[in-house]
C-alpha cells in the first residue's frame, strides 16, 4: 500500500469537506510532544481545512455539525474504555457517531491498537470496533503490517485502509552530561555519565511489561541503570507498587512516576544510551518514534509496525524475554568498551 497524506485521505472520502472534527482534544500546549498536534500540524497551519478538536463531553456538537453542513469529516482516535465509568459513556458516544453518519457526515478512524492494552471487555470492544469500522469511510493506519492485522480483526476490506506515516517528533540538541545533571538536580537522582542508562519513557502501564525489564536489568553483569519515567496510568497502581519495591531493593532501578513537562522530556533521552520497549502487544508506538527522533539505540519486540523497522541500523528486535536480555547484554558491553 502506498503511503499518503491526511489531506489525500480526506479528499478521498469527501472532496468538498472543509471542517474536520478531531476526537479527542488536541493538546495545543504541547506542540513538540503531542501526537495529535504533530499529526495535524500541516493542516492546522494551512487554510485548507478548519480543524476543530472535540472533547468526549461535547460529542453532541458532531450531530449539529452534520445537520448544518453535510461536508464535514469526523476523525476519531482511541475508541475504547478501561472501567465501568468510561463504559457508561460509550452508548452516548456511539449514538453521536452513528447520528453523525446518518445525517451525512464522513468518518475516518485511526487504529492505534489491535485491542485495548489492559485487555478488559474484549468481546464488547470487538463488537464496537467492528461497528465503527463499518461506519468509517476510511481506516487510517501507520504501517502495512497494521492493515494485514486489522483487516482480519475488524472484518474490513483492505481497500478501506489508508497508510499515513506516524508523525515525527522534533528533537532538542544537548548531550548526556547535561541531561544527567538536569535530571539529578530536578529529581534528586545520582546518575553518573560513566554508567549506561536504559530508558523506558511514558505512562506506566502493565502492557509495557516494565517489571520484566526491571528484573532483567537487576540480573545483568554490566553496570547500568534503568530509568522508568512517566505517570502511572489509571488502574495500574499495583504495578507502581511492584516497581517501587524493586527500586527500593536495587539502586539500578530509577523510578520517576510523574508526568514530565515538555521542556524536560529531552533530558531523559540525552541522558540515556538505550531505549527499551517490551510491549505485550502493539500496532504503532509513539514512544518508538520519540526514541528515533533522538537517534537512540532501540531494543523492541518484533510485532506490529515495529516489525517493519528491522532494517534500521539503530533498531534491534527480539521475540522472547531471553532475546531481550541477550540484546541488552551485547549492547551494554559494547557501550562499556567505547
TrEMBL record:
Domain of life of the native organism: Bacteria
Protein name (database record): Glycosyltransferase involved in cell wall bisynthesis
Classification lineage: Bacteria, Pseudomonadati, Balneolota, Balneolia, Balneolales
Keywords recorded for this protein, A-Z: Transferase
GO MF, any single term: transferase activity
Transferase keyword on record: yes
